[in-house]
């Protein structure tokens, strides 16, 4: 009984405290290190603890990359920003944060002028590992990281972007998937329809949207008269699918940008239109897979919209307010106005600063990678 009570207390504590408490006793160290405890702790944190935002910033003075962590507040200014140590096997030069899942981050690092590496990193436990090389390099691709409960494995999916879809008739677009347990990349494709394989050219997606056990992205299809469609890829059975779009959401020729994201556990679509009046639409799918459940959260009309794309939804607060990152030199805002992270270098810097941000839950998770 005592051990169960201890476990219930410990799994409610923050990660930093648990890492310190490993030194209390051998039994606590063993418990905190067990996979089942880490999963229970993560589930509790997702349901009870406020999320954080990992902010990455390249300083133009020395091309050094910095990581910051901040809590997310409903207030406009966040004060508890703190600097994070870089991964131990990482030289803080140019890099890109691709995606995150369960407190794990997939980071691309320029290793040499002609090559790059992928790094899996938990910023709280400070564990990191270089992932296996991909089968082929691509200048136009987007990544997703997700957990497969069927195989108890984390998987990375890379989807190629097809910038010349109409003239690409060879159908040689194939995506790649990495199972961390297997430790190797495999090419995957749908031989019956290459439409499922490719990603439409878009700026407003910084990673593949992962929800309900599947990755999602905007792809090209012409089913049901739509030029664009939301493509899904199930992480367990590795099958492509298609999410139904209502006719009123058909993307017209005056759409200049679009993206797929996850907000409040729901699949969402965001679109920017320019047809004399510039406006931004945000939709969510209340019941996954049900076409009739698409609802428009809001429309923002602003002449400045084309100048601040890409507009990427990041997080939905409890009151329904949505946090966005906007522009190529990222600024953060909500539907009500600017959202500030104070005490950062870039808060007083020029527009030359490259910034990105990803919402995450602090966790103890770090999967085994079979290299």
TrEMBL record:
Gene3D superfamilies: 1.20.1280.50
InterPro entries documented for this protein: F-box-assoc_dom_typ3, F-box-assoc_interact_dom, F-box-like_dom_sf, F-box_dom, SCF_F-box_component
Pfam (any one): FBA_3
Coiled-coil region list: none
F-box associated beta-propeller type domain sequence ranges: 61-326
Superkingdom of this protein's organism: Eukaryota
Annotated F-box domain residues: 7-40
Name used for this protein in its record: F-box/kelch-repeat protein At3g23880-like
Gene (UniProt): LOC107774084
């Amino acid at each position: 009984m005592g051990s169960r009570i201890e476990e219930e207390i410990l799994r409610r504590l923050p990660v930093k405290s648990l890492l310190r408490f490993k030194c209390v006793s051998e039994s606590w160290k063993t418990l905190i290190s067990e996979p089942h405890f880490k999963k229970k702790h993560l589930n509790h944190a997702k349901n009870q603890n406020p999320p954080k935002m990992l902010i990455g910033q390249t300083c133009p003075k020395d091309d050094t990359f910095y990581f910051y962590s901040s809590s997310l507040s409903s207030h406009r200014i966040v004060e508890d920003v703190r600097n994070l140590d870089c991964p131990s096997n990482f030289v803080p030069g140019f890099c890109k944060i691709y995606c995150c899942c369960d407190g794990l981050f997939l980071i691309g690092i320029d290793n040499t002028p002609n090559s790059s590496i992928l790094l899996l990193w938990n910023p709280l436990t400070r564990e990191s590992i270089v992932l296996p090389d991909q089968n082929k390099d691509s200048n136009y691709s987007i990544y997703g990281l997700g957990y497969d409960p069927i195989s108890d494995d984390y998987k990375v999916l890379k989807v190629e972007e097809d910038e010349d879809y109409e003239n690409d008739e060879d159908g040689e677009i194939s995506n790649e998937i990495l199972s961390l347990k297997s430790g190797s990349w495999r090419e995957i494709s749908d031989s019956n329809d290459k439409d499922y394989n490719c990603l439409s050219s878009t700026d407003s997606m910084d990673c593949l949207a992962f929800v309900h056990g599947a990755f999602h992205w905007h792809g090209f299809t012409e089913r049901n008269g739509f030029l664009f469609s939301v493509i899904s890829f199930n992480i367990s059975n590795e099958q492509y699918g298609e999410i139904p779009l209502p006719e009123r959401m058909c993307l017209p020729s005056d759409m200049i940008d679009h993206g797929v994201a996850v907000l409040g556990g729901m699949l969402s679509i965001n679109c920017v239109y320019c047809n004399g009046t510039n406006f931004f639409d945000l939709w969510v799918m209340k019941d996954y897979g049900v076409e009739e459940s698409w609802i428009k959260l809001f429309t923002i009309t602003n002449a400045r919209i084309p100048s601040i794309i890409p507009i990427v939804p990041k997080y939905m607060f409890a009151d329904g307010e949505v946090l966005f990152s906007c522009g190529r030199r990222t600024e953060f805002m909500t539907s009500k106005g600017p959202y500030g992270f104070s005490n950062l270098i870039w808060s007083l810097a020029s527009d030359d600063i490259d910034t990105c941000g990803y919402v995450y839950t602090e966790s103890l998770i770090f999967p085994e990678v079979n290299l």
